[in-house]
Amino acid sequence: MTAPVTGSVDAGRAPWGARLAAAMDAAGPLCLGIDPHPQLLHDWDLPDTPVGLERFSMTALEAAAGEGGSSAVAAIKPQVALYERHGSAGFAVLERLLREARDEEVLTIADAKRGDIGSTMTGYAEAWLSDDSPLAADAVTLSPYLGYGSLAPALELAEATGRGVFVLALTSNPEGSSVQHAVGVEGSVARTITASAARDNVRALTSSHVTGTKGIAGTAGTAGADVGTRAGATVRPALGPVGLVVGATVAGEAERLGLDLAGVRGALLAPGFGAQGASGAGMRAGFGSAWPSVLATSSRAILRRGPSVGGLREGIREALEDLGR
Ligand SMILES: O=c1ccn([C@@H]2O[C@H](COP(=O)(O)O)[C@@H](O)[C@H]2O)c(=O)[nH]1
């Protein structure tokens, strides 16, 4: 049985989908991954210690926060593993990063890839998605390989607090296909996860419209409403709280696997842009009509432009240009 989720609910926060759509419209479809790899710390002339980690993180945040009060990117995505390897001091740095990003109004996606049986999933949900938690982010990545249904505590808390989740569907690493392409009675595993996310988003978007709670971007509160466009492309649908992770390097396989990415009604977080070889043109082709919902994320390719804030901002500008911004 799933443990009840606790933690206060911020009734005033707009839904995640609306907040992300507004950020993507303002800054473009780019998320800056903050991955403090030991090699990058070394390249930035920083020690591989919590002190180096903190300097690295605050510099990356300064670049992401932009100038004149407008963010340079739609969101940042700290890679939790690279904070965790520094133990409790690393988590303290991550807490500071998340707190300061919130103060700067930069959206945060904690790349923690959490997933567990229901009773303990509640603990992970409260850690990353509760207003009371020092690690609270705007969204968290989740692994559905203990069963999509086991993620329910996180999905419920995300929806209740105006936050989001990104469920791994089709990952950018070559090993992912051994699980995600496997075919069961409902088709591929990735297809089942995609259909489950779509179902939950339609329900969430419909209920927020019916009850009038929070609203979607102030105007478009229906599951069928459109909340944004992207340069001459298809219109982006209203986005619900359940996004998917679909690797930028493998998006072209979605159609063959029967995934209806355009029908997910959630954001598609696309890692693999930059250092793993995916380009803006390749992503547009791979995602097809789902492209307006794609949030490309790039870590090393931009971070290698540091340690100066100017160098990082130049990397962000070039990435956005490649994405057609
Ligand atoms: O399928 C996935 C899921 C997550 N990631 C994460 O994204 C970044 C990618 O970093 P780059 O330096 O831009 O390659 C990293 O944190 C991964 O854990 C992914 O790559 N693929």
TrEMBL record:
Keywords of the record: Decarboxylase, Lyase, Pyrimidine biosynthesis
Residues annotated as domain Orotidine 5'-phosphate decarboxylase: 29-315
Gene: pyrF
Protein name, per record: Orotidine-5'-phosphate decarboxylase
Family that this chain belongs to: Belongs to the OMP decarboxylase family. Type 2 subfamily.
Catalytic EC class: lyase
Pathway the protein contributes to: Pyrimidine metabolism; UMP biosynthesis via de novo pathway; UMP from orotate: step 2/2
MF (Gene Ontology): orotidine-5'-phosphate decarboxylase activity
Entry's EC annotation: 4.1.1.23
Catalytic reaction list: orotidine 5'-phosphate + H(+) = UMP + CO2
